[in-house]
Design a protein that fits this description.
Elements (H helix, E strand, L loop, with lengths): L4 H13 L1 H15 L10 H8 L4 H9 L4 E6 L14 H11 L3 E7 L5 H4 L8 H16 L6 E5 L5 H10 L6 E4 L10 H12 L5 H11 L11 H11 L15 H16 L10 H4 L2 H14 L5 H11 L6 H8 L16 H7 L1 H11 L21 E6 L2 E6 L23 E6 L2 E6 L9 E9 L2 H9 L7 E5 L4 H4 L7 H10 L4 E5 L12 E6 L16 E5 L4 E4 L3 H6 L20 H6 L24 H8 L8
Parallel strand pairs: 1-2, 1-3, 3-4, 9-10, 10-11, 11-12
Antiparallel strand pairs: 5-6, 7-8, 8-12, 9-13, 13-14
Helix pairs in contact: 5-12, 7-8, 8-15, 9-10, 9-21, 11-14
Length: about 625
């Protein structure tokens, strides 16, 4: 297959850049790859502990050490609507495994927090770091050396990246990701956004707002807008870690249950005990990761993955940068319009052709690597042109539509909604930033206005309530990076900035924090790196500085004479209130060790990382910032 030249060029440079770290990763898998069935290495006491509570039939099979045993790692809790369906999955998986001649054990649970619940609250400051906690929890679950393959049950924002990072530490194990599906459609996302803006303007009260939100988030399954959770499901599919077409089948349906059982059966078939051994460490390589970026861009997915995909790649010894996102975005067409970059939700997306249509269209345009390994087996990514269905009650696959069922939701590569992927890299004297443009109208993609500097989301909201923001301005929100306060998502700013933009003002946001999958119609330069607390120059901006945010030319700068700019001291506000209460004190080590957003905000040691991402020189940082050593920095 002849790839698009940009796709080939980006893949080649990632491969070259990652030569040392990828080799180090694969070399680290070799001892486990050569040992065969893992639990044969366990002593009798160890093994007896591991199956002491198993049912008699399972215990016999586990004792024989001849048949594969699956690990179930689940992010179930019944507070997350997306994860509530997972309560029933272990029983389905165990039964399917027995019928296929194997066993399955619930290896461990991982924490799963909901950004929709914690947005605007202190708990959101734990959200990004929960990804690495989930990775560690996955490692603990798999550390018992009892398993020949793993099934990872997760959907939402940091949970799938965390599960995948953890699974990659056990790269010798085949691993299949098992989703739960989106909730049925409720009140439209467009109507929900309008009610939020009316609430921000004081036109409706809390009762009307809560009624609207209840009609939107109303049952089991993921939220139906195309945020990070549903972007995760798209990624697992285009990376070949789901069964084909599994991403967007609704919960608690016969087809969903059949797919869950089939995941168990397939996982048993791809262990080292059979002829189709497919370890996840060999599935996730530079081609798989380029496919992931392409899928993200083609569907207008979450900006969170400019952080998470970097971290996932590093866990597999692959080094990707925002330059790779930028260069691919220039040639990847936007073929999906799903809220917030359209009116449809993911159920409409799925009905119009879904992932099978998108993957097929991109393969035909030579915009995906087809020759990758996947959990589906022979055929590479071509298998993912298919969609599942029940044929007289039995799970089967058929060709997905090759023609969009709704041209307002899914377009063609030759006549896309946009000729680029809608994700821009902005650079300038304040650092490097990501801007999602797929939902921003062309007339709002360039803003030149005076800065108003804030050091908290609450300060922006208070200024809005006081009527101080009725003008053109760029909100510069500092000290929201991983080291400062865990890099919370700044959801609460979207409605009020949207109100100001609708009133005709030219407004934008520049921050070292996140906006995530909820990034919408407001021009926002986010993830500014280096972050302010790491000596990032965004901290030099002062009220009244003329700021230029230009998504067309990729420029983000403060129009301040260079001599004046370089002599400004970087004064750090008191950040101690971010570090106590609601569990935040426990995450001090994460804050202290987090790398920047462009390095995936990782807190773990990646293979070969020291050769690619130099450690921050904190003494130099103190010198630059004119701070005493006991400063919160």
């Amino acid at each position: 297959m002849t790839l698009h030249p940009t796709l080939a060029r980006v893949t080649d440079r990632i491969r070259e850049r990652s030569l040392h770290s990828r080799h180090a990763y694969l070399r680290g898998l070799e001892p486990a790859l050569s040992r065969g069935p893992i639990r044969k290495a366990l002593g009798c006491t160890n093994l007896a502990h591991a199956f002491a509570a198993a049912p008699t039939g399972d215990k016999i099979m586990l004792r024989e050490n001849q048949r594969p045993n699956l690990a179930i790692v689940s992010a179930y809790n019944d507070m997350l609507s997306a994860h509530q369906p997972f309560e029933r999955f272990p029983a389905l998986i165990k039964q399917a495994a027995r019928e296929a001649g194997g066993t399955a054990q619930f290896a461990g649970g991982v924490p799963a927090m909901c950004d929709g619940v914690t947005q605007g609250e202190p708990g959101m400051e734990l959200s990004l770091f929960s990804r690495d906690v989930i990775a560690m929890s996955t490692a603990i679950a798999l550390s018992h050396n009892m398993f020949d393959a793993a099934l990872c049950l997760g959907i939402c924002d940091k949970i799938v990246p965390g599960l995948l990072i953890g699974a990659l530490q056990f790269g010798h194990l085949p691993t299949i990701f098992v989703p739960g599906g989106p909730m049925a459609s409720g009140v439209s996302n467009d109507e929900k956004a309008k009610v939020r803006q009316r609430f921000a303007k004081g036109e409706v009260g809390r009762e009307a707002l809560l009624e609207s939100e209840e009609k939107s988030y109303h049952g089991p399954g993921t939220c139906t807008f195309y945020g990070t959770a549903n972007s995760n499901q798209m990624l697992m599919e285009v990376m070949g870690l789901h069964l084909p077409g599994a991403a967007f089948v609704n919960p608690d349906t016969p087809l969903r249950h059949a797919l869950t059982a089939a995941a168990a059966t397939r996982a048993l078939a791809i262990t080292a005990l059979g002829a189709e051994y497919t370890p996840i460490g060999e599935v996730v390589d530079e081609r798989t990761l380029v496919n992931a970026i392409v899928g993200l861009l083609a569907t207008g997915g979450s900006t969170n993955h400019t952080i998470h995909l970097v971290a996932i790649a590093r866990a597999a010894g692959v080094v990707i940068t925002w330059d790779d996102f930028r260069d691919l975005s220039e040639v990847i067409p936007l073929v999906a319009r799903v809220y917030p970059n359209g009116k449809a939700d993911v159920n409409h997306f799925h009905a119009a052709g879904g992932m099978g249509y998108v993957i097929g269209a991109l393969l035909d345009a030579k915009l995906l690597h087809a020759d990758v390994r996947t959990v589906a087996g022979d055929g590479g990514l071509e298998r993912y042109r298919q969609e599942p269905w029940l044929d007289d009650g039995q799970l089967a696959w058929r060709d997905a539509p090759s023609v969009s069922g709704d041209s307002t939701v899914l377009s063609t590569v030759s006549a896309p909604f946009s000729t680029d992927g809608g994700m821009k890299l902005l650079t300038g004297n304040v650092g490097r930033a990501i801007m999602k443009t797929s939902a921003v109208k062309a007339e709002h993609r360039t803003v030149r206005a005076p800065a108003i500097v804030f050091d908290s989301q609450e300060a922006v909201m208070a200024a809005f309530d006081r009527g101080e923001l009725q003008r053109d301005f760029v909100a510069v929100l500092r000290y929201q990076g991983p080291r400062a306060n865990g890099m919370p998502e700044l959801h609460k700013l979207t409605p009020l900035l949207g109100v100001l933009q609708d009133q005709g003002f030219h407004v934008a946001l520049v921050t070292d924090g996140r906006m995530s999958g909820a990034s919408g119609k407001i021009p926002a330069a986010i993830h500014v790196t280096p972050e302010c607390l790491a000596g990032g120059p965004l901290a030099r901006v002062r009220d009244g500085d003329m700021m230029r945010l230009d998504a067309e030319t990729g420029v983000l700068e403060a129009e301040v004479p260079a001599p004046q700019w370089m002599t400004r001291t970087l004064v750090v506000p008191d950040l101690s209130h971010y570090h106590q209460g609601l569990g935040r004190a426990l995450f001090g080590a994460f804050r202290a060790n987090a790398l920047g957003a462009e390095q995936g905000a990782i807190t773990f040691q990646a293979p070969g990382a020291e050769d690619v991402v130099p450690a921050l020189d904190t003494s130099a940082m103190h010198d630059r910032m004119d701070l005493p050593e006991e400063s919160p920095a």
